[in-house]
Amino acid sequence: MNKPKNLFILTFIAIFTIYLYIFGQIKTLELIKEQYLFILVLFSLTILLIYFKIKLKGYEIVNFNANNQLSLKSAILFFLLFQVIDYYNEEGFIGMISQWFLYWIMGVIALLLMENINYYKNYKIRQRLK
Q1: Whole-number pLDDT of residue 116
Q2: CA-to-CA distance for 75 and 63, rounded, in angstroms?
Q3: Do 122 and 54 meet the contact criterion of CB atoms below 8 Å apart?
Q4: Theoretical Cys-Cys bridge with 38: which of 47, 71, 93, 105, CB 3.0 to 4.6 Å?
Q5: How far apart, in whole angstroms, are the C-alpha atoms of residue 1 and residue 34?
């Protein structure tokens, strides 16, 4: 999980830098506030992941997601496809950029969801062994 974690941190910084440069501080905060439900889901999944990490501390974690890795090339192609769609649907470049934070949140949610499922499976195995 280290590589996606670093990638998400770098993209988060890049998105906010571009947002502040193009939209300014007030519009950037408005764009973030519009995504409050997704941010709540992100927060909930993070708390759940912390719970499972605490419960499984000291146990060897089996990676059930080893065969479910998405390549960087596929992720970039997927992102570019949505950029083209957003360019036309959101009426231009500014509308397209305004969707980047939503994509970032969805990517982090997907990553946390996969990690939570992996930890849940490990948690269930540990419960059966007790």
Answers
A1: 94
A2: 21
A3: no
A4: 105
A5: 28
- pLDDT value of residue 70: 67
Dihedral sign computed on CA atoms, order 108, 22, 78, 38: positive
Instruction: Round to whole Å and give the CA distance between 96 and 22.
Output: 12
The answer to whether the beta carbons of residues 112 and 39 sit under 8 Å apart is no
| Alpha helices (runs of H) in the chain, residue ranges in sequence order | 2-22, 24-33, 36-55, 72-89, 93-97, 100-129
Angstrom distance (rounded) from CA 125 to CA 70: 26
Q: How is residue 83 written in tokens?
A: 């950029």
| pLDDT score, position 62 | 86
Residue 62 to residue 5: CA distance in whole angstroms? 19
Q: Which two tokens stand for residue 21?
A: 């440069």
Task: State whether residue 47 is helix, strand or coil.
Answer: helix
Task: State which residues of the chain have pLDDT below 70.
Answer: 1-5, 68-72
The pair of structure tokens assigned to 35 is 């995504």
